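debug: dumping io for the single-chain case to check the tokenizer round-trip. Nothing else runs in this session.
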Amino acid sequence: MKKVILLLSCFLSYTLVYAQIVTVQGKVNGSKNEPLAGATITVNGANTTQVVKTNVEGVFSFKANVGQKYTLQISYVGYQTKTITDVTAETNGEPLAIHLEDAGNNLGDVTVKAASRTQAKVETINSAIQYQKNTAVVAQVLSAEAIKRTPDRNTGEVLKRIPGLSVIDGRYLVVRGLADRYNQAMLNGILLSTTEPDRKTFAFDIFPSNIIDNIIINKTFLPEYSGEWAGGLVQITTNDVPLKKFMEVQVGTGINTQTIGHDFYNYKGGKLDFLGFDDGTRALPAGIPTKSVFNDLSPEEKTNWGKRFENIWSANAQNNNLALLSKNFRIAGGFNTTMGVRNKLGGVFALNYNLSPRRTFFENRIYSFSNSQASINFDYTNNKYANDVLWGALGSLTLQLGNYNKLSWKNIFNVNTSDYTTERTGKDFETNSTTGDNIRATELAFKANTYYNTNLSGEHFIRPFQIKLDWFASFAILDQYIPDQRRIQYNQEDPLVPTSPYELLISASKTSQRSGSRYYGFLNDYIYTTGGNITKSYRVKNQLQTIKAGYFFQVKDRLFDSRPFAIYLPIDNPALRLQQPDVVFSPQNFGNGTDNKFAFNEIYDIRYRYLANSILNAGFVQVDNQLLNNKLRIIWGARVENFDQLLGSVRKADPRYLHTEKLDVLPGFNATYKVNNKVNIRLAGSQTVIRPEFRELSSFAFYDFDLGATITGNPNLPRTKISNIDLRYELYPRAGEIFNVGVFYKYFQNPTELYFNNTGAGSSGTFNYISPDNAQSVGAEVEFRKRLDMFYALKNFTVQGNLSYIYNRVPSLDRPMQGQSPYLLNIGLQYDVPRLGLNTTLLYNQIGRRIYYVGGSDNPPVWEAPRPLLDLQLAKKVLKNRGEIKLNISDIINQEARFYHDLNDNKKYDAGVDALAIRRKYGTNINVAFAYSIIK
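debug: decoded output
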């Protein structure tokens, strides 16, 4: 028995010893933030010495015993050798981030000695600040270390923490007060297309935060990147090869204070609505003829088809509070395995799901104006009940072949669907200008956006020649499907008699989209992208110089088709119009197409269908010079973009046909002077461009129920060219602290704006896109981040903030351009106690009033009033740091949003004086989540 116990003891001891061996990983960057492939890391332990090399990404790893301290010596030709002491191997240790300084004429070594805490941690924190100091442009950097210490679930939430940025609706980015159409996004070096077909924007909430390695927001232009932006270029880099296997799960729920405890209306849908897909419940009837064939049918044949559609025109109230809770789920995992001696295969995968029931209250009014006096045309009160589904998956595989070659395959799939009911009451004054007609209206809709992106990329480093090659190929699909969008309206027979009945608003018109209408929309975007870059490094007087050139090619194809149908009444039938919405359009109420029963028609117009294609060919040359003994760095070059766009039809005789081809030369210049190790002075100048989206150019007209107006594109819309100048002073007092102050100037040639035309198509007016001659912006911004540890009681607090002031004018119209805010304010207070696993963040954000949409000589613009946003986020580690409880409270103040005509022109909203166009109330969101690391 003793022998058995002794044998088991030996076996357990052996197992425990080998179970304590972990992998320590790190990344080495140079003075230009470039990964140093082939750098030598000498690892000295108590009784062992290892020598490892960095791969093409500058990443290295070595085996170590838990709890043992190591000394690392990092060396690379032309850089000062750095020695880091007290690197302690930990079971759950974070990767090291190391920066080497260019040697220049200083060939000495740098030794980082042990501090009061683990020096490796200090070096990682310093490296994040160093990265921002060393970046080539005016930029802001958020590292993986900073992201992991926040309770943020997705990239949209993470971006709220970056000073100078504002995120609208948790998804859309505002940089320097510029609306989302002036910003651009890249994922792992690949230019991302818009995620919404009706808006030039990118929804950043599709990326889970736990798969992000870093986020860099460029505010000045480099020729190697896309030239289609003016506010900010957001570069998201995801994890390629994780340090080790991991798997994390998160579940959560929450409430919206304006939704919970109230009736919630929805209509009968399909079995897959919870996944954001229609299962065919809303589909066109099987066998329905194509447009051209349907148009040739007789009125009776058309009406017979109208009987076959689902007869669902009303919504039912539910008061089940459990069903009104939001639900979210996320699972993410990764692996890392060796293949042979020098090769590695790694992968990262994530799946997230979010269902958010939301009731939004809003009022909207449309006016006519005469001598600065407003006369109301429409006055509506609305409640919108939406079940918003957002779910997606991400998967990537990376194969490292030795130290100098890497292949990656990354995939993103995202579904963003809103299934909603809008109930409306109010008055129409267009036919009864004295008392107005009392109305009741309903819209039932299902709007699904599906996005998929896959890209294959490679990086190769030819060390003998100091040449780096990288290439990429990408394919993306963006589909929008709107099946059976229905609108119905009733008007009270006598608005002066409260008991007077309501009658269906329907007439003999065969083309109305306002009441008794059905709409089907089908949009498919296909985006093909490829390109590559070559980078050559060399030295002049022992100062590192780099020249880079590359090519970018992207094709976008769009197919858009829609089928709007109208129910009409050839001969009036008052008794029929008195029936309620759930029975009024029953099959028995349809006639032969010419009698006094309902008839059915498809609105036939070639504008309801179009195709579009764009081809972007771009090339660049960029030189990166180090001068004055590495104190001055100048990056200069130019990008040439040829943009060929076809819209509407391939036939020139077709009235929809539109073809443009433009060649843009976009120069960029960035200079950084290093006054000392703590101070940079930056000067930058560039030319960039913003091109209109297909939807902004298309003549397709669509009635927007929320706005109560029709939206149509403008085929004559030109591109916007922007000239940019930046001057910035940067101070980095110590690790984790920043103080920056800068000024900037922007000149916009032909900016794009949304214009309300009260005399447009349809009695309700039309929104069009217009382009004034030019606009100019002059701005100043201050950014700071300060740890408050100078006071012992505040040692765990950090305060950060940004204030941007922008003076913008369209000279010919003496007003700011649409979407430009005069100021942007961010203030954040963080309380972080790492030993307790506690993280708390309080965020305040406000943007100045801005033009929501512009008006003409007879219609003053609609302004969006400032609205303060206050968010609180709490996170606490539990279960030996394997679990985490998170609490997010967003929009605590819950101030209503106001959009108004400033009739007295005093630059603020005055109730009872100014004409209130839109008033919205969103409610406060309170969410709680629990996350757990299954494998850590």
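debug: round-trip ok. The chain has a mean pLDDT of 87.
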